[in-house]
Amino acid sequence: MKNITKIILILLLVVCNVNAQQEKGIFGSSNWLNNWTEFKPNTIDYGDANQILAGSISVNTKLLKRNIYVLQGDVYVTNNAVLTIEPGTKIIGDFESKGALIITKGATLIADGLETDPIVFTSNTSSKKAGDWGGIIILGDAPINKFGNYSSLNLELDPNFNNYGGTNSISSSGIIRYVRIEFAGKRIKGGNNFSGLLLAGLGSKTIVENVMVSYCGGNSFDIFGGELNMSKMVSLRSKKDDFKFTQGAQCRIDNSLAIRSSYVSSDSDSRCVEVLGYERKEETDFSKKLTVVTATNLTMVNDSENLKADIQAGLIKSAVYVGENASLIFKKSVISGFNPAVLLDNKIEINDKNLKKLQFEAMYFNNCNGNIFTEYNTNNEDLENWYGQSVFFNVYSKGNNSETFIDFSNDKKPDYRLQLSKITASK
Questions:
Q1: 92 assigned to some structural domain
Q2: What digits encode the pLDDT tens for the residues 102-121?
Q3: What does UniProt give as the signal peptide span (predicted)?
Q4: I want to staple 135 with a disulfide (CB 3.0 to 4.6 A). Which of 39, 184, 287, 396 is the partner?
Q5: Is residue 9 part of a domain?
Q6: What is the CATH number of the domain that holds 408?
Q7: For the chain, what is the domain count?
Q8: Rounded-to-integer distance, Cα 46 and Cα 367, Å
Q9: Any domain includes 11
Q10: Which domain, by its residues, includes 416?
Q11: Which of 405, 404, 363, 351 is nearest to 387 (CA)?
Q12: Within a domain: residue 275?
């Protein structure tokens, strides 16, 4: 009887351990990337536009699946209007005029696609590339940490329609769900780029789920302030950051994916996740909230055929960067193939107070050239010892991508769930 009890206890421990492993990185009982994502968007012909969107949309408007729309120049939704987009609708960003869609403060976007019928924003060129058109900007009235609680975007937009911020942390700017944004991120004067999806001052009732940004010339996702929950985000081969959080953003992001390429990133500051307390210190009101990001079940992977050579050539940098006066809680996530996995601003003093704001728990660090470093410091022994404690349940491995993920090399329908002993990473 005692032996049977021991066997049962051992089996329970094994099952619990397997479940703990399964939860790292993106998860699901099936591959949730199927149906609505597209990993080879430059091979698809969406057809020619038969409707033009230009200027301002100041009354409630609905875009229909049966039409194909072209964004000519900067298109503003104003006057508290609601822009509704049917599932399956295609919107083409015009290359010549660098079209963009801007949802101004008080207006609403209802882009609620379906898993089997996503809404697609893409380029109208025959040879699509990053930066062909602008992107999508949604401006809200939730708090930011700049003086006065308000700010404006420096993206050559109409100054009457580019402000954001306020005091309504639970406001809604609409729904963006099952949406693909391809080849956005136009370049403007001064070297800045549009983002694929820029969310500035959005309240917690805004729904942002199942959004894929592919081949963006700027950041895939930019979060300026506000209080957002984001789930099942996908960033594919962005030139700059995959996810950037700043200006006091209070954000939770879970079950999301970033895929980087050694030969696509534009500069050394391009990372999967960048968490900054503010944009400019002199414009920041330190009596307000600084940036806090809680990231759970993220998978960040660098797609490199020769990781060692690409690191030596300086093509691969860190996956995660944390700036001064910012907090990051990272749990159950996978970081595979970076140099190093995490980099902390050299202004962050390594002490108990700051380490409480920088949590890395139940992480899976795979094939990284070092794990957690302070910027400009090649000695990370203290950080390795701290985060390597058993209480944090962090795991370290040296597997290649094909061994680490279920179906990494599938061009059309890849599966980036973690594979441990051929067990699907599901929850």
A1: yes
A2: 999 999 999 999 999 999 99
A3: 1-20
A4: 184
A5: no
A6: 2.160.20
A7: 1
A8: 38
A9: no
A10: 24-424
A11: 363
A12: yes
